[in-house]
Queue: 2 jobs
Job 1
Amino acid sequence: MSSGNADYRDSGLVFPEDFVFGAATASYQIEGAWNEDGRGVSIWDTFSHTPGRISDGANGDVTDDHYHRLEEDLDLMKRLGLQAYRFSISWPRIVPTGSGEVNQAGIDFYSRLVDGLITRGITPIATLYHWDLPQPLEDKGGWVNRETAYRFEEYTRVIGAALGDRVQIWTTLNEPWCSAYLGYGSGAHAPGRTDGADALAAVHHLNLAHGLGLSALRAVVSNDPQYSVTLNLHALRGVGETGAEAVRQIDALGNRAFTGPMLHGAYPQDLLDDTASITDWGFVQEGDLEIIHQPIDVLGINYYSTNAVRIWDGVSERVSADGHKPSAGSAWPGADRVEFVQQDGPYTEMGWNIAPDGFEQLLRDVHAEFPDLPLMITENGAAFADVVTDGAVHDPERTDYLRRHLTAVHRAMEGGVDLRGYMVWSLMDNFEWAYGFSKRFGVVRVDYDTLVRTVKDSGLWYSELVRTHVIPE
Ligand code: GCO
């Protein structure tokens, strides 16, 4: 596959001058101010306020209080030297009930954010949907209801018109896999529903929303931005004789259910066959695939670890090490016999295996399938149990994780993969969904009592990388 150390611990590798280094966050995870300035309720407010849903009982009511600390956080980004900032827009701040009335205060907040970035020389990368669906839309069926895709189109038109003179990269959806399968299949994420057929309908309506959103943006923006979507493509490893078949099934549900319609213009036949006993896919209407299949300028990829799979033998105790919080339903409708096998460490605090080789392979595979499509890493990073010592956070494990994954990115580029940038997840510690505040992904620490931000050692290291474009010692 590649030359160089098997452990991917390189330093001194040089990235091209026009390669963009930045950091990523998401609205619900950092903003707080959940009921201020006209913001409506989202499914994550409802979910996190429901006892038992979040492992440490936390919610995003305040989290990093970014909404009130915008200027301070912009200055922090500037101090780190970030070239780009990938943020998401909270739909219920813009259209509080999901349809109809628009909330100007919400638009103003993101307008200030975008201006603040531009003033500081930081490129704004906006994601339209990072999981915070307005609750009134969920009450009407959420992503299982086709109407939600049209409401997304309306919201996109509003925010696209407001920021469409300044945003440089628009991303329609973040990880629709999570929205559909964790939200409606396993129930580990909001809205916490557990029905395989619903999850598959959600897949299609999210794909449809992506297409409708792209058309809406193209109609209203006035600058010349790039259009994108971010997928958490699963890097899969087959185990044993049945590994290849298990990989095929998970690849269909986890990857090709999105890349198929978005980038090839069709759902893969094996996906339809595998799920035939669950749904007839009657929710795919004539003309939908043409809407979904539109050119994009760059594909965003989020990567954390690999998955190892095989077909369960029906005898031994069933394992399900798929890296997500255990929950009532299945995140893999139609792949009931696939077993997720525990992989070799080392692991991050999430229990996810650290596998930079899997990252390099994934990037090479995606490039081989879509050779003309530029790629951007829109998330990569790691949670570790940080300790504050004399006001500093020494987090060599996180720096090591970043070094190894940046080495993988560099090797993929050497191998011909067209990669345009890398956004570390995350700028700062934040509300980690079903795990609450128990997992810290930031290169900046947030003290949740005082809300004080402290740049971790990994953040200082990353800052040097951004400045020099060379992987530091
Ligand atoms: C994701 C996410 C982030 C998570 C991160 C770590 O898209 O899954 O965008 O919100 O916090 O992936 O789990």
Job 2
Amino acid sequence: MSKHTRTIMITGGAGFIGSHVVRLFVNTYSSYLVVNADALTYAGNLENLKDVEKAANYRFEKADITDAAAIEALFEKYAFDAVIHLAAESHVDRSIIDPLAFVKTNVLGTVNLLNIARRYWANSETKMEGKRFMHVSTDEVYGSLGEEGFFTEETAYDPRSPYSASKASSDHFVMAWYHTYKLPVVMSNCSNNYGSYHFPEKLIPLMINNIVNNKSLPVYGKGENVRDWLFVEDHARAIDVIFHNGRTGEKYNVGGFNEWKNIDLVHLLCKIMDAKLGRPEGTSAKLITYVTDRPGHDMRYAIDASKLNRELGWKPSLQFEEGLEKTVDWYLQNGDWIKHVTSGDYQHYYQEQYAKR
Ligand code: NAD
Ligand code: TYD
């Protein structure tokens, strides 16, 4: 008999959000066994989990979610009763250059996990009882908004980038496994996250890193696109409450009620960084450079997260300025982390590719 009350596979636990979810679960639920299954792509880094790697209730397994034999072997080894699925290719610009990699991991990988979880649980003594498959998805599946309105859980899917199309597809497969096979699923669709351990190809960490190094700050198009930003630890808390208390077969939107135009956000970051680095105000803003826009660039995302608040009592804990300051402090104190995770040459890669079209 296992001494653990629950054995959970967290996929993608070495990535940005996954590492925060692993940390939260390992530190909060000492009776659970948390198994981080991650292929360690360019975006996965075990340095993100140094503080929990020796915890008695934590294990790491290097595994690719598209590899059926490897995932089956993990189910046999640990007899998981739950999966929290975060592993994905997650960067829109990469999806424009190499869409098939996104189909492989995000679609085939998800279906592979669904298949194996279903088979394994259907053959277990207790069948689907007490089992849980949580799928972590994005607000980008809903498409692009104009100036008005919000995405709700009823908004029709309208993905427009290869990344969001692959996530939308994975969401549909998750719901299909619920309806067809009674797999006990629950799903979340979250807005843009920011915080520590964010790979510096995404807007906020890229800008922080470039300001530190006096490099240009590439703002796509006119910088008028709007994103709704949520502190990553608030997202991890949302995943915790949805995993434990969300209704089976339901999806929950997660968002920060915190919309920013990219250019305003970059200016705010420049101001915070000037103060932190002891530079005269206005120094970093001079690095802003408008560059070729991302093809098909979604204009605005805005999440209505009232269902999650109403049903499960979740709301964001941090004001944006406070979260951003914490994030900037973390990056300034962890320069070595950035050096280790970056190869250095990707920053302008996408603009060069778009400009050639
Ligand atoms: P990330 O790119 O930082 O991390 C992805 C992780 O998955 C990495 O550790 C990587 O090694 C792993 N991985 C990739 N392919 C794999 C494979 N084939 N097998 C096993 N592991 C693999 O991503 P993130 O920003 O932490 O996002 C995590 C999840 O949350 C994704 O599903 C993403 O779609 C979703 N999401 C992200 C955001 C955001 O703002 N970043 C917002 C909403 C939802
Ligand atoms: P990103 O962090 O890639 O997240 P997503 O595309 O999933 O929303 O980008 C956030 C916004 O910032 C998006 O509108 C694209 C824009 N952006 C830039 O203007 N410059 C950049 O260098 C990057 C990476 C993004």
